[in-house]
């Protein structure tokens, strides 16, 4: 970090932002001013920055708080004009905002505090990933949100279906399956189902489920029985049928969007080498690899594996004061929640054991040693930490993952000794 240059602090808001420019010694060079976040306002700010550069003979550093999509546009604008931008975590900015004894909280004060934070902390300049990795990150995050929306919609559908058709879940335990949606979209109530043609229903079930007629007939008989019972014990409110039909339409649309996004992600991932390298690691398949690659955004932004671990929020917190040293420390869980979720799933898959053993013997062996001295959740946290270090090594070396168990290492060492002899 070059501290011998002016500093621009920006307090970002939706419509407009406040800017303050300090000298390298902390004196106010330009008092806080407001500018719109549109083209006219940003051009006005760029003119002020140009004059500041002419005065000091060096480009100023720009510090702003990470506020999601509001700050992303400003970061893009300033980095495209070759300014070094420092994106500050709100946890960092909060500490300096509460340092003063008097409680003063205004936009003008906040932008000046952000500029002074540059003088007190070793900040890291914002990393601009490649266009493919940036696209992958946005697509994977959108897919993640759609999957959560799908789960919420299934819950809403189940809540609407339970009063009017209580036994439907006995036939289709997964309400988002093609068979369940095909029945409910055409027959949202037990009354409409019982009035339908039996032969047409059996053929429809066979086609959707891709099974034989015998299977379809059994499904139909179970559905008919639950529908007849629903007429006796169900709530006779017609609005429930309308609600069921509505949630079915929403669910089908979400599923179609998820399929389209998965297609786009697969197409984009085929051109990204990081995704192919990650898929060589057991436990990381074609679903998790794009998420991890997009969230990392290029391994060159991290100089050490510890930085990647901290970015995922998998590093343990530290508690120590005087002679006291905390032993029950939790994960910090700061950083990217999407990356942490993907690593958690990969770790869970890696320690899964079947008749052939662990999917990843290296991780499995490490996990078995850990659960002897730690609780299972703590051991899983250690597995996530180790998996991130493997990811760092694979992406840094640009070499596929190679399985090296303790037995492999012993044999390799013996062969090396024989060669030397």
Topology record:
Layout (H helix, E strand, L loop, with lengths): L6 E5 L4 E7 L5 E9 L2 H18 L4 E5 L3 H12 L4 E4 L1 H8 L9 H14 L10 H34 L3 H4 L6 H9 L3 H6 L2 H12 L3 H21 L4 H32 L3 H6 L9 H9 L8 H7 L8 E2 L2 E2 L11 H14 L2 E2 L2 E2 L2 H10 L5 H22 L8 H15 L1
Parallel strand pairs: 1-4, 4-5
Antiparallel strand pairs: 1-2, 2-3, 6-7, 8-9
Short description:
The chain is α/β, with parallel strands linked by helices and 421 residues long. The protein has helices spanning 39-56, 69-80, 90-97, 107-120, 131-164, 168-171, 178-186, 190-195, 198-209, 213-233, 238-269, 273-278, 288-296, 305-311, 337-350, 361-370, 376-397, 406-420, and strands at 7-11, 16-22, 28-36, 61-65, 85-88, 320-321, 324-325, 353-354, 357-358.
Termini gap: 52 Å
**How many individual domains?**
3
Order of helices and strands: EEEHEHEHHHHHHHHHHHHEEHEEHHH
Shape category: globular
Number of helices: 18
Q: Helix- and strand-based class?
A: alpha/beta
Q: How many β strands by DSSP?
A: 9
Rg over CA atoms, rounded to whole Å, is 29 Å
How would you explain this protein's 3D organization?
The chain is α/β, with parallel strands linked by helices. The protein contains 18 helices and 9 strands. Strands 3-2-1-4-5 form a 5-stranded mixed beta sheet, sandwiched between helices. A two-stranded antiparallel sheet has the order 6-7. The chain is globular and about 85 Å long.
